[in-house]
Write a structure and sequence with these properties.
It is built from 15 helices and no strands. The protein has about 350 residues and is an all-alpha fold. The longest helix is centred in the last third of the chain and has 32 residues. It is globular, with a radius of gyration of 24 Å. The relative contact order is 0.09.
């Protein structure tokens, strides 16, 4: 009874919606059976070479045989436990932040922002006693995608908040500097920023100074993304009623305390969808590092197509890449919705 009511309300509420629903159902009727036959029923799942793909469907053997390279790039197999340990540690730190009622979220978040990057770098890069050195040009695949995305997300948010506060500052020099920075970085595409960071930036360093290519890409991504994040946060600051600022002043709070305790918590809560949207865009934009010779998940999959032993299986590779990106982006989207509902629960009646 309830399902029938939902169908009538959402799918057949008007003649136009009914026609649109029937048209979409007809399209699914035409597209789904051959897709299911290709991807599941007629697919080859087990084997070790392309000779095992004889049924005419998808050749998932290609994904299985290349999966290790898709996940870790050229990271040495005997050292991949360090990558697993690093991301497992990140997951363990993130889980308490999602638990309602956990009382130590703030110190844990600070440890995540300030301490975890150093631990992860030592684990992944090595060079300390007991851990062999693994150069960053050996990093790749999903590992590199996550490293770029996590570093960009963690560092772009605080820089973006500072730029947003600077843009609304009453001091003309600070306000002008922040506006100039934001508009310049928003005026160029990310692919240009990466090219500049990879090719042009070393020209400004002394000859004996070399900066790692991955580090240059991270710096470019953080500087670029913080400008977009600043505009998202500025939207939240502008939505705060003037009375909140006046109330903070009436309590005798200084500028930074009023921002930290009164204004920013409300502003960030208002722009959670925009912040997550920026994070999702950054996660997908990491694929652009391919132009500077870094092989993220999509880059390493495209490189696998050039292997003469696996020519002709590009569709399977792109489907796998799309599935991985969808899982991460959908997960971030659902978490943001849950967080938004939880934070709004205390203000809604």
């Amino acid at each position: 009874m309830r399902a029938g009511h939902w169908v009538r309300r959402n799918l057949f509420s008007t003649p136009f919606n009914s026609a649109l629903t029937l048209l979409i159902l007809y399209g699914l009727y035409l597209a789904l059976p051959p897709l299911i036959n290709w991807a599941i029923i007629n697919a080859d799942w087990i084997g070790a070479s392309r000779e095992d793909c004889t049924s005419g469907g998808a050749c998932w053997v290609f994904i299985g045989m290349r999966l290790n390279q898709f996940l870790y790039g050229f990271y040495p197999a005997e050292e991949q436990w360090r990558v697993n340990l690093g991301f497992s540690l990140l997951a363990l730190l993130l889980v308490p932040l999602t638990i309602k009622g956990f009382r130590h979220k703030r110190p844990l978040a600070l440890a995540l922002v300030l301490g975890y990057p150093a631990i992860a770098y030592l684990l992944f890069h090595g060079g300390v006693p007991g851990l062999p050195l693994v150069q960053t040009h050996q990093w790749g695949g999903l590992m590199l995608t996550l490293v770029l995305a996590v570093v960009g997300i963690v560092l772009a948010l605080p820089f973006g908040v500072l730029l947003a506060l600077g843009r609304r500052s009453k001091m003309p020099i600070i306000r002008a500097g922040c506006i100039t920075y934001i508009e310049i970085w928003r005026g160029v595409p990310l692919i240009t920023v990466l090219f500049m960071a990879s090719v042009m930036l070393p020209l400004f360093f002394p000859g004996e100074v070399t900066v790692d290519k991955l580090l240059r890409a991270m710096i470019g991504i953080v500087l670029f993304q913080s400008a977009y994040m600043a505009e998202v946060v500025r939207g939240g600051l502008q939505a705060i009623p003037k009375g909140q600022y006046e109330a903070a002043e009436a309590l005798g709070l200084g500028y930074w305390r009023s921002m930290r305790l009164v204004i920013l918590p409300q502003a960030l809560r208002l722009v959670i969808p925009g912040i997550v949207n920026t994070f999702i865009a950054l996660f997908k934009d990491t694929t652009l590092v391919l132009i500077i010779g870094l092989f993220d998940l999509l880059g390493i999959i495209q490189q696998a197509f050039t292997d003469p032993n696996w020519l002709g299986y590009a569709v399977e590779g792109y489907v796998f890449a799309a599935l991985v990106y969808w899982i991460f982006c959908f997960g971030m989207s659902r978490y943001s919705q849950t967080l938004e509902q939880e934070l709004n629960r205390g203000t809604s009646r």
